[in-house]
Amino acid sequence: MSKQKNKKHSTTKHTHKALLETGVLEITRSGIGYVVIANGTGDILVRQGNFNTALHGDTVTVKVIKESSTTKKKEGRIVDVLERRQTEFVGHLQLSTNFAFFIPDTERPMPDIFIPLDKLNGAKHKEKVIARLVKWDKDDRKPVGEIVSILSSEDENDAAMKDILAQSGFPLSFDKTVLQEAANLPVVFDKKEIESRPDCRDILTFTIDPVDAKDFHDAISIKKIKHNLYEIGIHIADVSYYVVPENILDEEAYKRATSVYLPDRVNPMLPEKISNELCSLRPHEDKFTFSAIFEITAAGEVKNHWIGRTVIHSNHRFTYEDVQSIIENEEGLYAEQILLLNTIAQKWRKQRFQKGAINFSSQEVRFILDEKGKPIGITVKESKEAHQLVEECMLLANKTVAEFVAHTKVKDDKEIPFPYRVHDKPNEDKLTPFIAFARKYGHQFNTSTPEKIAQSFNDMLKAVQGLPEQHVLEQLGIRTMSKAIYTENNIGHYGLGFTYYCHFTSPIRRYPDVLVHRVVASILRKKPLLDKKMEEKCKHCSERERAAMDCERVGNKYKQVEFMKERLGETFEGIVSGVAGFGFWVETVEHKCEGLVTIVSLNDYDEFRLVEADYALVGRRSGRQFRMGDKVTIKVVAANLEKRQLDYEWVPGSEVKAGKGLGRKVVKAKKRK
Fold it and tell me: Which of 105, 116, 328, 665 is 20 to 30 A from 433 in CA distance terms?
């Protein structure tokens, strides 16, 4: 018995020296939890009985209760919930005579929520509802909540979109106190405030936005100063004038940190009174703006610039399609000014890529929806000159503002805390296999400096334009890149080739832009803002941005599955977009809908194995390959809305191969029996 005890103590330490760690709880479908520690010291296993009152995604304090002396793996017990990730849930109501419970629709285990009968908000037994967690103290047997709204049983789409937002911790509505605060904001401009700002209302100014946009963040003005010299202004909605530090609107905006754009809706960072009315740069209305104004030659050379608060008046609201038509046909409203801006923007764009920016092309999927939100069509939006015109102007403003702050020092030459937008150079572990793969297509990479790597990327991207392998090389190339984040520790923006960069141009939908405006305003007042919590705010905004991107990806996937569900049994041309040991993914050419062809469905044709270096599945007998970038024909065999999954089957026939000169064998496989 004593030997057993000694043996036990040699592998497991019972923590008489209690270790407390902070991290995020991730609960698996099986009910086991892991607290992910931010400093990378290793996850801590937490069993279901030790969750205390924590839920999936919560930031918690965990006490380490066991640690293996051999593997160093830790087990713990949650002692405190520091921050809830999610407080609103989609599920069903179970109503009894004296009490009610909310049963969440979730794949991960979580307790039912007790709903007092006076908090039902009119909900009835078995109705699908949204519930808000109100209270769950350590002594409470069950969490206590209230019903926020009732979901229509006929509108599955609405419930699905709200569930996507709720699971990522985004509030589905604004509290009454927040809406009231927004409603109290003055609609009429303060005369003293107008007098304190340079007046740009007489200068030709217009906005360029998507056709369905309601919140106009930015406007462009243009005025000829003299021959070959122009004043070009980039004017941004002055959100920080209305949303002041530490009031209830600011707290709500910080909590959300970003607007979320789903296929059928926008979940805004700020109430509509601010985002669509007071701050939206609508045509024929005076608006307060924060501006970066430049003196620029017709050749695109910036001679001078000024940054500050202004008042503007937009003369016209253009859509991207309007501007693209003017560029292509060289005629239309304000054609002379738009054509000049486009010429300058294209010069800036060319110069950026020459200086090291990486020219990855982007495609955006847009859904055509009926009145119930059901997708009846999918279009692919590509970046055209109208988009590039706006993009280059915004990049100039963002870069100039970041440089302005970076070169402003305070006492003892200290830097001002500031939310830079940074992008690190490519991850070497991801870059090395990609370079080996690209070499098979004849592309060489110079890795001697980060600048040479960027140039190699651009050379490759230019060479593959229009070729079958373009898609695979672009997608794999993007995966080698680091993620852009917000931080006060500036390391530059590798992808854009900028030494200094920030987000200044979209404060209606991004909280970091609000922070940028506040810092710049403080410098202009000669009282620089030294925010000791800036890095903490940057981390929060980066995390919320990733959550919003996940929401948008999942929302798009839901709509794609919904669209393809009406097309079961139909065949489509597609491109192999990923490979794994259990099958390969195919993205349809026409609609960009990605589904999985399982390796099991290929068993009648051959036995396939994964060759990781070639990003390919290879048939053992036939030599038939399915490699990233290959064109294939698929049939839609299943569409699971609940899991947001599409299943395809490969249809053998006349596929076009992606490689050039690789000598891969193409065979016609036998049809299934």
Answer: 665
